[in-house]
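Q: I'm building a small set of examples for a reading group on sequence design. Run inverse folding on the following structure and report the sequence directly after it, with nothing in between.
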């Protein structure tokens, strides 16, 4: 195994896997999570990362899907295949699996405008809605089979209820009759599955029947009266028939499960796999992780990396890179400064990436695929094996040097510690040289000044330090790459109150070269701190400038777009006005030419009057083009009366919509008429109709006949149409009368989608309306409203135009 269990335990990978298991939605997915191991294959890592990314994308776009895949399904399907009869609970688990499979297919096929790498996996699912519904309708719970499970079962249970009532009626004479004094209690109970009454011992001869039981004191006998013996026998027989029929039903279901065993097994494994990837995505969301850029190159470049087991509100992110400009990183600094945490962060994020998990770091981070991660972290002193700290470290290092390769990541904690400092430092340098010669990447922590000097003098070896604030005596946990760290022992001791003379004497005892080296480091650290502050200030100014620039550019773009849009509107409006004027002038000239051709003066005057009215109507239609409103005009008097009763086939004018139509049917009682105008059929009252008897003139009470257009003008704006109608509280026919008229208005207003609010209730009103909707030619499609927008209480209708 390329990644040893000991290494994974040292890096606390098991805690990450436990968190992943807790995020899993099914037992099978949890088992997959707990057995997840990193991979050293580049293609496998890429595929795993892609699945995790796509699952996360789906969660953020459409929330978490519902999963149900009980582990018992596999064994149940196998047993059914071999001929076993399944229990109701096993069959309900199978129905739950089929429901989850169908739901997962609906999830991926509905309202997702992008494709993912999970689509192909999910579409392997084979749903079976028919069998799922059969189970759920027949089995209500683990111990309850529905009457509708079979006609025979329904008939048996009907007879059982009738027999029970017959027995209770017969026993009522004991409870409520003159024999009540014989009873110990005024109740009917059961013994051995038969109805009995509790009779006092002294009255046992007064109640003829079979004794089934006695009380512990002997004062009460539970007697089955002879009058109900036959009925009890019948009840016993019916109960046996019921049990036999239930067994037959379960056997039939089990046989069908056996036939579908391979399909159920496939669905189980697909749901489990998808649930596992969604668990990976859920873990990434909870720890605010991102997908790293996985590379086949031997390198690590982590940006704003955090250790996933530390409080994300308190942990200080680090930037660290190995493999680009250098292969070996030597980290120095005081104890508790974060050196070991840095090593563990490097190792843990590498194995998490290899396992297909996203990491708590910037999405700009780059992680290579290694064939092994080798670590020597922590004090593994063993009393039982007589190993000191140094010896235990050396056992690990020997093993590491045997396994190291050019695709290894090696992490050493306190390399060379636990022995003579001079020898330890020399040994540490030799081990790092061996690791570098093997082509591996390595990171080591140390306190040795010799290793700091080695990093300064050796190509492709770099110093780093964990920053420490001497004033507060607290580490900042910031990793500074390029600068060796100081132990700060003297400064810390002075802050803690150690006598100044002792500190001065200790300083004098340090060798001159070492002291000079420490002074250089201190000056470098001071200069670095100043540069960091200047850099942060410059970065803040740059970000502020970028924000200002982006805001200004956005405002300029918006202004340009608004101006261009306004220019386009004005150009289009001008084009419409010119076109309307041109059409109007052409129309007027045509009318004048027609009038010139007429010689008859009287007829010419009539044509002039008619042309004047038509031109007026034409101009009003043209005005509507650039006023933005659709106008209907009707020239009528309010006191108009039909010259005669309307009959089927009459040509009429519809006032409300300004169109001609034909009468299809007449309701004499309600004075309502069904009229067809083009493809539109509508019901209207008598006052909304004008009879057309070969003339467009209408008769007004007390006035001469005048052509259409010389009465008062009634204007109706289509923009007042509302896109929904509320019929809650109405009965079916009344509601349909309102909706029928509303659909006509919708078509005339050129609205192609409307909402009918009928409420949920018992569902009777919805069912009545849907029956009409199915038969209505005006309706192209109808369905429930979306969840959160009324769902089953609202129907959305799409109309034909």
């Amino acid at each position: 195994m390329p990644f040893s269990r000991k290494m994974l335990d040292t890096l606390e990978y098991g805690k990450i896997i436990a968190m992943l298991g807790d995020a899993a939605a099914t037992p099978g997915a949890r088992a997959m999570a707990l057995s997840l191991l990193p991979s050293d294959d580049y293609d496998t890592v890429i595929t795993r990362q892609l699945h995790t990314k796509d699952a996360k994308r789906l969660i953020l776009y459409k929330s978490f899907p519902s999963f149900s895949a009980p582990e018992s399904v596999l064994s149940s399907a196998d047993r059914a295949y071999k001929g076993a009869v399944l229990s109701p609970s096993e069959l309900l688990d199978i129905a739950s699996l089929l429901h989850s499979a169908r739901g997962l297919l609906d999830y991926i096929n509905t309202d997702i405008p992008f494709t993912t790498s999970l689509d192909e996996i999910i579409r392997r699912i084979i749903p079976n809605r028919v069998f799922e519904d059969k189970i759920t309708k027949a089995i209500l719970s683990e111990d309850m089979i529905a009457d509708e499970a079979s006609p025979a079962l329904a008939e048996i249970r009907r007879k059982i209820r009738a027999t029970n009532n017959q027995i209770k009626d017969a026993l009522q004479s004991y409870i409520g009759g003159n024999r009540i004094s014989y009873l110990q209690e005024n109740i009917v109970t059961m013994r051995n599955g038969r109805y009995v009454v509790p009779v006092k011992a002294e009255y046992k001869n007064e109640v003829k029947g079979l004794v089934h039981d006695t009380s512990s004191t002997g004062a009460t006998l539970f007697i089955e009266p002879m009058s109900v013996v036959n009925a009890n026998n019948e009840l016993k027989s019916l109960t046996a028939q019921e049990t036999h029929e239930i067994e037959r039903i379960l056997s039939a279901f089990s046989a069908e499960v056996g036939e579908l065993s391979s399909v159920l097994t496939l669905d189980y494994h697909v749901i489990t796999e998808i649930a596992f990837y969604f668990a990976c995505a859920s873990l990434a969301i909870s720890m605010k992780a991102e997908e790293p850029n996985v590379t086949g190159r031997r390198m690590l470049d982590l940006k704003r990396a955090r250790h996933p087991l530390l409080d994300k509100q308190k942990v200080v992110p680090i930037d660290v890179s190995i493999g680009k400009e250098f292969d070996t990183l030597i980290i120095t600094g005081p104890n508790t400064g974060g050196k070991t945490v840095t090593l563990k962060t490097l190792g843990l994020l590498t194995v998490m990436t290899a396992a297909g998990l996203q990491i708590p770091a910037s999405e700009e981070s780059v992680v290579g695929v290694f064939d092994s991660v080798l670590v020597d972290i922590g004090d593994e002193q063993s009393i039982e094996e007589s190993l000191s700290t140094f010896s235990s470290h050396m056992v690990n290092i020997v093993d590491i040097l045997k396994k190291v390769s050019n695709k290894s990541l090696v992490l050493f904690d306190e390399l060379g510690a636990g022995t003579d400092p001079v020898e330890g430092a020399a040994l540490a340098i030799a081990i790092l040289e061996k690791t570098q010669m093997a082509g591996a990447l390595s990171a080591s922590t140390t306190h040795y000044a010799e290793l700091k000097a080695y990093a300064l003098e050796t190509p492709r070896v770099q110093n780093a330090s964990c920053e420490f604030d001497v004033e507060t005596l607290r580490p900042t946990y910031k990793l500074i790459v390029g600068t060796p760290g100081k132990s700060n022992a003297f400064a810390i001791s002075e802050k803690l109150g150690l006598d100044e003379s002792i500190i001065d004497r200790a300083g004098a005892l340090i060798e001159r070269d070492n002291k000079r080296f420490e002074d250089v480091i201190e000056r470098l650290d001071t200069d670095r701190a100043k540069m960091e502050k200047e850099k942060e200030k410059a970065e803040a100014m740059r970000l502020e400038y970028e924000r200002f620039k982006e805001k200004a550019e956005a405002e300029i773009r918006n202004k340009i777009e608004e101006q261009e849009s306004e220019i386009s509107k004005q150009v289009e409006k001008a084009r419409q006005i010119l076109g309307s004027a041109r059409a109007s002038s052409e129309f007027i000239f045509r009318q004048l030419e027609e009038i010139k051709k007429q010689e008859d003066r009287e007829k010419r005057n009539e044509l002039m009057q008619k042309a004047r009215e038509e031109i007026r109507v034409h101009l009003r239609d043209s005005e509507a083009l650039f006023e933005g409103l659709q106008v209907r005009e009707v020239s009528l008097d309010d006191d108009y009366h039909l010259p005669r009763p309307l009959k089927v086939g009459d040509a009429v004018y519809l006032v409300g919509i300004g169109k001609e139509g034909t009468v299809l049917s007449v309701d004499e009682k309600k004075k309502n008429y069904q009229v067809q105008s083009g493809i539109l059929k509508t019901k209207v009252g008598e006052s909304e109709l004008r009879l057309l008897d070969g003339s467009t003139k209408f008769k007004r009470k007390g006035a001469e006949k005048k052509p259409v257009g010389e009465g008062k003008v009634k204007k109706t704006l289509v923009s007042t149409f509302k896109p929904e109608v509320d019929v809650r509280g109405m009965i079916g026919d009344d509601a349909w009368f309102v909706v029928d008229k509303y659909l006509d208005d919708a078509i005339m207003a050129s609205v192609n989608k409307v909402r009918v609010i009928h409420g949920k209730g018992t569902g009777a009103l919805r069912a009545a309306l849907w029956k009409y909707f199915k038969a209505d030619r005006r309706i192209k499609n109808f369905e429930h409203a979306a969840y959160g927008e009324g769902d089953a209480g609202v129907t959305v209708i799409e109309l034909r135009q």
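The CA atoms of residues 763 and 793 lie 9 Å apart.
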